[in-house]
Design brief:
Elements (H helix, E strand, L loop, with lengths): L2 E9 L4 H16 L4 E9 L11 E2 H9 L3 H17 L11 E2 L3 H12 L3 H14 L7 H10 L4 H9 L4 H13 L7 E4 L3 E4 L4 H19 L1
Parallel strand pairs: 1-2
Antiparallel strand pairs: 1-5, 3-4, 5-6
Helix pairs in contact: 1-9, 4-5, 5-6, 6-7
């Protein structure tokens, strides 16, 4: 019998390392498929909650936020591209690339969980932002991305325009911050164990095995 585990994947659509971490986690779970049956739920976290709706130039944002030079920013992007290639994800950074406010995308992800399409929408949002350079704060764009994963675009637009799930997402964000999460990705296993960062798949695999061994010992 497989061990049942609950995984809360705390992340932001604006976070490239969340893409890498998610793909490596999925690779680890594939390796553990004969031992573990995992349920992944995506939890909201905003790296830039005060980001205006018009967004900000990517280079400008990174340099201001982290106090680094353009050369250092370019080097970081190259590293991210290479890590993306390793997990078959395309990061397409361009001179016009921008950072966007991700709150409405998190509201849509909250809705998609009830529609059992959250995982598909999460990946589609990552691709919309990082691969295709779309404005994922725009409601038309979000509805289009929802449609691409077989969600009802009219229903998606309704969720966005009516402000649905605003309180739910705010409460979840506050919960994770209150519980000490300050960076993403952070993976919470069985509401007890935290794995931080975009770890390699082997690291995730070992961590999950260690957790399940501990859980099984405690249940005896």
């Amino acid at each position: 019998m497989k061990d049942q585990i609950d995984i809360q994947f705390v992340s932001d659509i604006m976070c490239p390392w969340c893409v890498v971490g998610l793909e490596n986690l999925k690779a680890a779970l594939i390796q553990l498929d004969d031992k573990i049956d995992a349920k992944i739920t995506f939890q909201p976290f905003e790296l830039n909650p005060d980001m205006p709706q018009e967004g900000q130039d990517f280079d400008e944002h990174i340099q201001q936020k982290y106090g680094i030079s353009k050369e250092q920013s370019d080097q970081n992007r190259q590293v991210i591209k290479e890590r993306g290639q390793a997990v078959d994800f395309i990061f397409s950074f361009k001179p016009e690339s921008r950072m966007w406010n991700s709150f409405d995308a998190h509201r849509l992800l909250h809705w998609a969980e009830h529609e059992e399409k959250q995982a598909e929408l999460k990946l589609a949002l990552f691709k919309a932002h990082f691969t295709h350079g779309q404005n994922i704060s725009n409601h038309d764009v979000l509805a289009s991305v929802a449609a691409a994963v077989d969600l009802d675009p009219k229903a998606a637009k309704g969720v966005l325009e009516k402000g649905q799930f605003t309180d739910d997402v705010r409460q979840k964000e506050a919960f994770w911050q209150k519980n000490g999460i300050t960076s993403v990705p952070t993976i919470i296993v069985n509401n007890k164990y935290a794995i931080s960062g975009a770890q390699p798949s082997e690291t995730f695999k070992q961590a999950l095995e260690d957790i399940m061994n501990k859980e099984n010992v405690e249940s005896i």
